[in-house]
User: Fold these one by one.
Assistant:
Number 1:
Amino acid sequence: MKAHILCIVAASMLAGCSSYSFHTNLSPDNVAEYFTPSAVDVMDKDELLKYNSKALGSVSGLSCQADERDFIANEADARTDARIKAARIGANAIVFNKCVVVTDSPSCLKSVTCYGQAYIRGDKIR
């Protein structure tokens, strides 16, 4: 009898949760975009010299704290933005030159901009 009541209670609980919907801010249309930075390896110039590579151009990434409620601008976000831009021009490697921090600009309380060179890294030189 107890097992029968337990089954009824469990079934009722499961049925009660069946109308629950899950919402996320992740868009299925942008899943590829979420993983774009991982397609671009961060390298230093000496490491890149071990490979056949071709420079594609300069890229920069920005992290901006527009107001006090926003996340604080940081180098990691600026580098990630630069890696996304490098991937968009077909790069698979990036060498960062420098990052610059600016406070109290007209559009950002704090901003971090990282500059780098995007490359297509080929086969390793023997």
Note: The chain has a mean pLDDT of 87.
Number 2:
Amino acid sequence: MRPTAPQIGFDRFIRLDWARKAMEVRAGLAETDELEAMLDEAHSGLAAKKKTKTVLNRLWLEPRKEVEPFAQGAVELFQSVPSTSPAALTWGMAIVTYPFFAKVAEIVGRLTSLQGDCTTAEVHRRMAEIYGEREGTRRMTNMVLQSQIDWETLDRSDNGKTLTRKKIVALETPDLVRWMTKAVLKSVGRPVGIGTLEAQPVIYPFGLGENLGFVLSSAPDVDLRADSTGSQIVSLITEQ
């Protein structure tokens, strides 16, 4: 998956209602014209709309081939339980599809883990260390942050200088927990200890709940095993 993943790619502000509508279109619960009307209203030019549509396509409408089964799993969750959080589903798709989005999420998650907030300057500094001191890096980091704020995972205050994480949202169903676990494993690209799974900063807005080992034990494509210390390790079966 990683060699073909776009290095940045998530270069547009994506409102949650656009992402939800794109997901509904893919699920057969809405028409393409409805999404087009929303995007037409929000964009003054065709070029800007096209760029936004490209991100929505990658997330929901035309995901990369290697991400397609994962996206379909999300759509089936939404079809079976329409109240499933569109923010959680879109977040999972974003961290799997766009490593840049995942890195911003990871950095925000780490920086806000102790006191609940951080400065935008800290986030930009960390991203510049990874992607370089370029205007594009800064602008695209802002696009991700603005999207996360719109998805109601962050608040911005002090004239935009401070980011505060909102209360953790518990994922509603075991199926959603299993799906989000796979999103984490795909995003980080390695097995994770079950004791640290929920604390992975890349999913800082969401809680996986109790009895995680039991919930994951019935996931057909997730493997649970004990390491040399007796701790449970979670991995994707397809990656073994």
Note: DSSP finds eleven helices and eight strands in the chain.
Number 3:
Amino acid sequence: MIIHRAFYREAAQVTLAIAAVLLVLILLMSLTALLGRAARGEYSESIIPLMLGLQLLKKLDLLLGLALYLGILLTLGRWYRDNEMTVLAACGVGLSQLLRPVFLLALVFALAVGAVSLYFTPLASRQIEKVKSESPHRQEIGSVTPGTFMEAAGSQSIIYAAGVNPESGRLENIFVSNLKLGNQAVVVAGTAHAFTEAGTEHKYLALRNGTLYDGAPGEADYRIVDFEALNLRLRPKKAAAASVGIEGAPTWRLWARTDGDHAAELHWRLAKPVAVFVLAAFALVLAYTDPRRGRLTNLFAAILVYFIYSNLLGLGQTLIKKGVVPPALGLWWVHVGLALIAFYLFARRSANKPLLSLPARAR
């Protein structure tokens, strides 16, 4: 049918455009968080691109579902504003005839969302933990940014460098604190560079032309030593083994567990593809645009429905964990309840009735 093909084409284009915008927003937020952690020395900048891709993969299922919801809403909303829906109604094509293309498109996205939610999202969670455990936990000394404090390998020291010599690449005007020398040590040096001892692979910080202040905090008996050369060994902590929580557990393993935490995670993964159909039904209903109320009224109502749906799913997940809702019921009460509301509103919209039946004013 020509109408169906036109809907598929426009809805797909709008959905992909919205997905691209959401993708950029997620990338920017994730990149900001990752750069902040790298600046604090939690891990090396070298793993940021990989971590960014894995973080995106974890959020891809929610991104696709939201993009389709808004894509259907905006596509049909334009049809209403341009009176295309009015023309279709005059030709005998009502909302009921749009159910098939809307839910066929939702089926395609639900399959993609289901694959991401049930397989790729937990896989990404496992890979994130693996990358964290295998990558350096702290930045190398050579990657110190001038003018910023950095926690060095194994949290053994705090290092500050005022600048870097462009020719030699050595740090200049160094301040180092908490190096585990005696009680409390502070070192101020003219230059510094890192090196690895041959044979032992131990890392050292070579300080040149400086002063060591060593003593107990709060006491006046500090030991002050001027030096020409001082090598401080950096003792990195052992990398912790990758800890795979419930979020990273394979879906097949969740089926075999009956406790609340595993059941809540399983139903949360299943909820994402199911929500695609429920949201598609709401988009079909809420797309109607009344010229007298403006274009943003239906968009506001759609966003409100999305947040209510998301909060109810979050509440249901908490109730499953606490044992209030049995695992067999899961989150289906949320899906079924909202689906019934969506189809009730669809019936009123198809009959050209207002979505909400308000009592008439007394004259």
Note: The first helix runs from residue 2 to 39.
Number 4:
Amino acid sequence: MTSYKCSVVDQTGKKRKITHIAESKAEVIDYLKKNNYVIINIDKDRGSINLNRLNRKKIKSKDLAVFCKQLYAMLKAGVTIVSSLEILKQQTENKNLAKIIGRMYEDLQKGNTFSEVLARHQGVFPSIFISMVEAGEISGNIDIIMDRLANHFEKEYKIENKIKSAMTYPIILAIVSIVVVTFLLTTIMPTFVDMYSSSGVELPRITQIMISMSETIKNYWYIILAVIAVIVLLISSLGKKPEIRLKEDYYKLQIPVVKNLLLKVATSRFTRTLSTLIGSGVPLLQALDTVSGVTGNTYIGSKILEAKEDVRKGAALSQPLRQQGLFPPMVHSMVKIGEDSGSLEEILDKTADFYDEEVETAITRLTTMLEPLMIILMAIIIGFIVIAMVMPMFDMVSTVQ
């Protein structure tokens, strides 16, 4: 990844300097054209050496919330951004973030703006962060922006935490099931096989299948693990391709059990982020471009970009949202009310609060449904193996009698 310094003219006719990180100059040009900038000049940023190592690992929402809170407190107290970052780089517990803050501190001392410095670390700081700081620099309210961002990331962390907590038990149950099944097939089953072999009893088909599985796992476990690893890597690699990721995210929304939760999470993020951006003075078109990348689903993101194009042509935001029918009716109805009343920020914020609660309810319902289903499935699989192991015993008893 390389950092590029771009001189452009925005939609209002003002000259701007933008720093953008990309794989190539062509990718930068594509990004600028997509955001309707008139390109004057693009140069490589000579100061951007080996940013990949620092930007490889994203910072968690919790750490971003703490960073914004601390920065807000210092800016509110009258401390400059440069001095604030100098303090934060020494007391931040996250080592990766501390290194990035140190690099940002050095770049600020060279005369770069805060938004330009953040743009050099797009792999770490999400687009909402950079867009809002740009708006804050124009309005002169960076401290207020930091407070808004702190609240935003704190709420985002709570949603992420709820989802992780809800999935912990099913994942543990799945791991226990795999361990138990593997133990039965590789340790217990061979004992029964030796006993049945010496008795000369004809084994039922189900037992023969289990014995074959047991021998395969015992003799070729390393091949099985290698195949699983290759499949996981292949799926992970394919999932990084935009066209495949788009189809994958589309099909996720067709799964009845998952669709409800995914849509509510996306709706919460869409309304919360859009409210935060608009309230910070970010233009609607730029805000929609940023929001398209935070929903957690590329298909939903593509629909937001389609809505953005309709807004660019003069339509109200509520109109394409209603026509698409992707978000719940409440969303485009509330957006319409906000547009008519001139209070879109407040309306979106209240809608986000509502869907935060809906997400929690949906997670609880999904967990309540998954837990007994997984226990039943685990019982069926283990029961099937146990039956396969003991069935020949009945034939042995009959033979003895």
Note: Residues 36 and 290 are 14 Å apart (CA to CA).
